[in-house]
Design brief:
Length: 656
C-alpha cells in the first residue's frame, strides 16, 4: 500500500505526458514540466531565495519556488538526465515540432540547440547498444534521431509511422540497451542500434512504454489498454473506458518486484501486479493525471512516487510501513470487494433461476433440449466486392446437427439466436453482435469482417443456440484465428500469362528472416523525385516565412516605442497612426503564421512519405545490407543527390 506524505498545489497547468524530475545541480531533485504558452516550469523547493540569471530562466511571479524556462514554441516532449561526461548535474532536454534544446539549468545556459526536421514527438535519454556516450533520442515523423552532449548526430533510422513512445533497456539480455519504439501504426518495434530485431503488433496507437525489470516492460494504448510484455510474450492486459496518461514502474510493497503504476484521464491512480494485472492500490486526483515520476523529493533518503495532475496538483507517496503491509488495498477497496461479491451473487441467483425455469419447460413440452453432441462450427471465406458490399472476409457460424428427439416431440432444427465476436482492432469497441430477426432465424449466421491490417487476430466467438420456440438458450464458445493474409485470394484466371522470368540466388540469412516483399517499381521514381523537390520547396518557404516574421517582430517593437513616445508627448494624431500600423502588422503576422503552419504540415507529410520509402527499400534487405541502405539513403538526402538516392533504393549502392 502507498501512503500519501505530501501534497502541493502549483499555480501552473501541466501538459499531459510532459513531466520529469532532474537533479540539475547534482544534488536536489526538481519537478519539471511543460506548461502553457511554450514554457517549462522547474519547481525547486530546496533552494529558496536564489534568483536565476537573466538568460532563458526567470522566476514565476506566482510561486517563488518555481522558475520558468521560455521556449517560445509549443513543447511536445521533455526529459532530464545525465548527458555530458563533465556536467555538474542533469541536462534538461526539451523538444518542439522543429527543434531540440539541451539546457543546463544550473548554469542557465544552452548546451546545444538543434533543428529537427522530422519533429520531436517523444524523447528518451540513455545509452544505446555499443555507442559509448549517452544519447538524447527523439522520435518524430517516421524517424528516430540521437544526439550526444555536443549536439552531434550519432544515430538515425526510419520506422513505420509517427513515433509516440520510447524506452531504453536490455531487451535481449546481452548486457546492452535496445530501443523500444511505439508508433501510430500500432506496432512496438525493438531496435539494436539501427537494426530492427523484433516487432509486436497491438490494436491502437502505443502512447506509453516503461521498463519494469529484466526483459519485462509495460505499455499503454490510445484506447485505454494497459498491459505487460516479457520480451515478445504478453503477460496480461486490461482495457478501461478512460485513457492511460502515464505509466511508471515502482515497488510499492517492498517485495523487490516493481508494480505497474498507471495515471488515468479521470484522475485515478492504480498499481497493478506485474504478473497478473491485479489491482493492489488505487487513489484519485481531482483532475486528469499529467505524469507519474519518482524521486527523493523530501531529501530524507526515501524514494517517493510523485503523481501530478493537469491542474498543477502534486501528490507524493511512500510504501506503507510493516504494520500496514498486509493491507495492500486502501479503505475503499473493501467496499468495492463487497459490491463485486454482491453483484456476483445476484448473477448466480439469476442463472440458477433460469436453469429452474428451463427445466420446467423441458418437462412440459420438451422444447429447449439439444443433443449432447451439438457443436459449433466455423468457416472463413473471402468475398469479393459487390455493388451492395465491399470486399470482406465472411465468418460462417453454424451448428452441426438438428434435434433428435422421441417421436412424441416435434422435431425442430437448432437455430442460432445471436452471435457475439470479440476481436482486437477489427470492430469498434473490439466487439460485434449479429442478432437476426425472428423471421430470419436459422442454424447458420454469417458475419462480414474487414481487417484493417495484415495481421493474425484471434476471434473469440459466442453463439446462443436453441430451438425455434426456445426462450432459454445454450451459450457455445469457440476461438478461431483470422490468418495474417486473410483478405487475399487466389486468382484462378486461366487467361493470364504465366511468369516468364525468374531469379536464383544464395543467402546467408536464416529462411525465417526472409519474407516476400513487393519490389520498388521504376514509375515510383518520378513520384519520389517530386516529393523531394517539394521538401526543398517547403524548407525554402519555411526559411523565408521565418525571416519575414522576425522582420515584422522588429517593426512591431519599433512601432510600439514610437506610439508610446507620441502618447507621452500628447501627440494623439501620431499615436493613432502608429497603432493603426501596429494593427495592420499584427494582422499580417497572424496570416503569415497560418501560412507557416500549413507549410509545416505539408512538409511533415512529404518527409513521412520519404522516410516510408527509405524504410521499404531497407526491408528488401536483411542484416547489414539493410542498415547500409538506410544510412546511404540518408546521406544521399543530406547531399541532395536524388539520382544517387534512387540507385541506392534499386541496387543497394550509389555506384552505377
Amino acid at each position: 500500500m502507498l501512503v500519501p506524505i505530501f501534497t502541493l498545489k502549483l499555480n501552473h497547468k501541466i501538459n499531459p505526458r510532459m513531466v520529469t524530475i532532474g537533479k540539475f545541480d547534482g544534488v536536489h531533485p526538481c519537478l519539471t514540466a511543460a506548461t502553457q504558452a511554450g514554457k517549462v516550469f522547474i519547481h525547486n523547493p530546496h533552494a529558496r531565495g536564489q534568483r536565476p540569471a537573466a538568460h532563458r530562466l526567470s522566476h514565476s511571479t506566482q510561486d517563488s519556488d518555481i522558475s520558468l524556462l521560455n521556449i517560445n514554441q509549443a513543447v511536445t516532449c521533455l526529459t532530464a538526465g545525465k548527458l555530458g561526461p563533465n556536467t555538474t548535474g542533469d541536462t534538461l532536454l526539451v523538444g518542439s515540432q522543429t527543434n531540440l534544446l539541451a539546457y543546463d539549468v544550473h548554469d542557465n545556459a544552452d548546451v546545444f540547440y538543434r533543428e529537427v526536421s522530422d519533429g520531436a514527438n517523444t524523447i528518451v535519454l540513455g545509452k544505446l547498444g555499443d555507442i559509448r556516450s549517452p544519447l538524447a533520442i527523439i522520435g518524430g515523423n517516421c524517424a528516430l534521431q540521437g544526439f550526444d552532449y555536443a549536439g552531434a548526430d550519432h544515430f538515425w533510422t526510419v520506422t513505420g509511422d509517427n513515433v509516440r513512445s520510447l524506452v531504453l533497456f536490455d531487451f535481449t539480455g546481452d548486457g546492452k540497451n535496445e530501443l523500444l519504439v511505439g508508433s501510430e501504426d500500432f506496432d512496438i518495434r525493438v531496435f539494436k542500434e539501427d537494426e530492427l530485431v523484433s516487432e509486436m503488433t497491438e490494436n491502437e496507437t502505443v502512447t506509453s512504454l516503461c521498463h519494469m525489470h529484466g526483459s519485462r516492460f509495460g505499455y499503454a494504448l490510445a484506447n485505454g489498454t494497459v498491459g505487460v510484455y516479457d520480451r515478445n510474450a504478453r503477460y496480461w492486459r486490461i482495457k478501461s473506458k478512460n485513457h492511460a496518461m502515464s505509466i511508471h514502474a515502482f515497488d510499492l510493497n517492498a517485495d523487490g518486484v516493481v508494480e505497474l503504476i498507471t495515471g488515468w484521464s479521470n484522475g485515478k491512480i492504480d498499481a497493478r501486479s506485474d504478473r497478473t494485472g491485479e489491482v493492489i492500490f488505487k487513489d484519485n486526483l481531482s483532475s486528469s493525471v499529467a505524469g507519474v515520476v519518482e524521486g527523493d523529493y523530501r531529501l530524507d533518503g526515501q524514494t517517493q512516487l510523485i503523481c501530478t495532475s493537469i491542474e498543477g496538483e502534486v501528490r507524493g507517496y511512500l510504501p506503507a510501513g510493516k504494520d500496514l503491509k498486509g493491507n495492500l488495498m486502501d479503505s475503499s477497496a473493501e467496499q468495492d470487494l463487497i459490491r463485486e461479491l454482491s453483484h456476483r451473487r445476484q448473477n448466480l441467483l439469476l442463472e440458477l433461476r433460469n436453469y429452474e425455469e428451463n427445466a420446467k419447460v423441458h418437462l412440459l413440452i420438451g422444447v429447449g433440449v439439444i443433443p449432447a453432441n451439438t457443436q459449433l462450427q466455423t468457416a472463413l471465406s473471402v468475398r469479393p466486392a459487390t455493388e451492395a458490399q465491399k470486399a470482406h472476409v465472411e465468418e460462417r457460424v453454424n451448428t452441426n446437427n438438428t434435434f433428435n428427439l422421441p417421436l412424441t416431440v416435434p422435431c425442430t432444427e437448432t437455430i442460432i439466436r445471436a452471435v457475439l465476436i470479440f476481436a482486437e482492432g477489427i470492430f469498434e469497441g473490439e466487439s460485434h453482435v449479429v442478432h437476426p430477426s425472428v423471421q430470419n432465424l436459422s442454424g447458420c449466421a454469417r458475419v462480414p469482417i474487414v481487417p484493417p491490417k495484415d495481421i493474425p487476430v484471434d476471434l473469440h466467438i459466442k453463439a446462443f443456440v436453441g430451438g425455434k420456440t426456445s426462450t432459454q438458450f445454450h451459450v457455445f464458445e469457440i476461438t478461431r484465428q483470422l490468418p495474417r493474409f486473410s483478405m487475399y485470394d487466389v486468382n484462378f484466371d486461366s487467361s493470364a500469362d504465366p511468369p516468364t522470368g525468374s531469379v536464383t540466388f544464395s543467402i546467408s540469412e536464416r529462411p525465417q528472416r526472409v519474407g516476400g516483399h513487393s519490389v520498388l517499381l521504376s514509375d515510383r521514381e518520378q513520384v519520389e523525385r517530386e516529393l523531394l523537390i517539394s521538401v526543398d520547396e517547403f524548407h525554402s518557404v519555411h526559411q523565408k516565412l521565418t525571416a519575414a516574421m522576425a522582420d515584422h517582430s522588429n517593426y512591431i517593437r519599433n512601432m510600439l516605442v514610437q506610439a508610446e513616445d507620441a502618447r507621452l508627448m500628447c501627440d494623439m494624431t501620431t499615436t493613432k497612426k502608429r497603432y493603426r500600423e501596429l494593427y495592420d502588422l499584427n494582422r499580417d503576422l497572424v496570416n503569415e503564421y497560418k501560412i507557416r503552419s500549413n507549410n509545416h504540415n505539408a512538409l511533415l507529410a512529404c518527409l513521412k512519405s520519404v522516410n516510408l520509402a527509405i524504410q521499404r527499400a531497407g526491408r528488401l534487405r536483411v542484416g547489414k545490407p539493410k542498415n547500409q541502405v538506410i544510412s546511404a539513403c540518408r546521406d544521399a538526402i543530406k547531399s541532395n543527390n536524388v539520382n544517387s538516392l534512387f540507385r541506392i533504393m534499386r541496387a543497394g549502392t550509389a555506384s552505377s
